[in-house]
Known about the structure:
Layout: H1 11-17, H2 24-37, H3 45-70, H4 72-78, H5 83-86, H6 93-110, H7 114-131, H8 141-165, H9 171-190, H10 196-202, H11 207-211, H12 213-237, H13 241-263, H14 265-291
Pfam family, one: UbiA
EC number: 2.5.1.62
GO molecular function: chlorophyll synthetase activity
Amino acid sequence: MSNSVAVRPAPSAVLEVLHPITWFPPMWAFGCGVVSSGVPISSRWVEVIAGIVLCGPLLVATSQVVNDWFDRDVDAINEPNRPIPSGRIPGRWGLYLSFLWTAASLLVASQLGAWVFGAAVLGLVLAWMYSMPPFRLKQNGWLGNGACAITYEGFAWFTGAAVMLGGLPPWWIVTLALLYSAGAHGIMTLNDFKSIEGDIKTGVGSLPVKLGVDNAARVLCAVMAIPQVIVVALLLSWDRPIQAGIVGFVLAVQLALMVRFLRSPVERATWFSGLGVALYVSGMMASAVAVSSFGAA
């Protein structure tokens, strides 16, 4: 029986390194952008499908394989069963896949208009800077989580609206996308509570490491809540009381969850992420619906 090492990765290993579970948030944000545009999906369904593929299986997948490639040495110690350190993705195939998915992302984005292409380019630059030396934005909790938040939420929302409108979305759509991106910074910080010990050992300056567990928890709660308060105020000023009430309600529930989370942040980070994030993204869609009729105004 041959003991030769694999020359090419198996499709299952490639899929694993692309981390499909991470594709949902930007695809949801893209959907919010589509809805907020007010343009019927039936009129541009081909572009909608292409945009969904771009935001999830291409752009986010690119960021995942790039991250796994540049983290391969650390993963060899902490998570040796991952596709790259385990050898299931052999040699330099992790890097080749990073280049391939980057190129595919740019190709698809180039077919969806100049604004979509520009957002994709900026998103890819941040994806590479997040993981690649000497930038390694992930080493800084403020910068790394900010890069993830703006790409996963803001750029994806912007892309959805730009695809439907065929150009630059209006200011109210961009404003909502930026506000929910700001709030998503807190969501990204939630993920850091499960890796505090490893971050300390490897020199990663996550917010729980930089600020301490309790202070980081308070900061992330404020960062999540304040943009939603502003969204409620904007929706009321735009004469959208129903959607303002929905966003206000989901925020109120989040605040109640935050009180419990703050009592034991490390133990309850995953619990709060599961419940709080679902409420947060529900508010995103309610806000998108609120402005969907603005285009006709």
